[in-house]
Amino acid sequence: MNSVVYTHGHHESVLRSHRWRTAANSAGHLLPVLRPGLTVLDVGCGPGTITADLAALVAAPDGSGRVTAVEITTGALALARAEIGARRQGNVDFAVGDVHALPFPDDSFDIVHAHQVLQHVGDPVRALRELRRVCRPGGHIAVRDSDYGAFTWHPRRPELDEWLALYQRLARANGGEPDAGRRLLSWAHAAGLTDVTATSSTWCFATPQDRAWWGDLWAERVVDSALGHQALAAGVDPGTLARIAAGWRAWATEPDGWLSILHGELLARP
């Protein structure tokens, strides 16, 4: 297993984007198989907004239906604890664990879910084998990852092209694969999964409000988040980061501005 560094980190600008995620906008491929009473493992739960939605969807009147939220550190897991606590949901458990070696017995969960996780791990094939191991026969494994190489926007801006090349370089230097979306099916096959449905979906930012939100958070992330710090450590000039940040903000003011983010998805049976 290769050593990896989480490219995004947990700066507030990162958490703003992660807290925007819901089961509706980020787990549509999973929703048709959810029902009250199921047990769900949410690996790499982040700040817990998707986790909370999943918990609401599987909660049953008889008290069955639980979600177990997993993060790699207690600090990261505290973000989800806070979200679940704020929503006063009682059917969520928490565990610290590594997706390469999950701390659960075989066949523990009806649904095993990982959103934007495999792009950041050292061995995605091994990770998928672990997801299969803890999923009960007849259950479902659901993963979704963005594909940075397939991001597209208008109007073209050289600063955004520079941002994409920089992000891909840093993410790969950290041990991840930023173009994970297109590779999910091949990783699943390599992990021995054969009953797999592969799909894709997008996020689109085109309204003035959405552009302002997305452009501002990425401008901040480029300069102030872990990504910016990693870029500086890799020898990127601070002026370059400032220029990229300004490019994001300039794109956000374009009346014709449009950006689409492609995600690969899998729904598999163990």
How is the secondary structure organized here?
Blueprint: H1 12-19, H2 23-26, E1 39-43, H3 49-58, E2 66-71, H4 74-87, E3 92-96, E4 109-115, H5 124-134, E5 135-146, E6 152-154, H6 158-173, H7 184-190, E7 195-205, H8 208-224, H9 226-233, H10 238-252, E8 258-269
In brief, what are we looking at here?
Helices cover 41% and strands 23% of the residues. It is built from ten helices and eight strands.
Structure description:
This protein is 41% helix and 23% strand. With 270 residues, it is α/β, with parallel strands linked by helices. Strands 1, 2, 3, 4, 5, 6, 7 and 8 form an eight-stranded mixed sheet that branches.
List keywords for this structure.
alpha/beta; eight-stranded mixed β-sheet; 270 residues; 41% helix; globular; 10 helices
The description of the largest β-sheet is:
8 strands, mixed
Residues in β-strands, percent: 15-25%
Shape: globular
Going by helix content, strand content and strand pairing, the class is: alpha/beta
Low-confidence stretches: none
Listing every helix as H and every strand as E from the N terminus to the C terminus, the arrangement reads HHEHEHEEHEEHHEHHHE
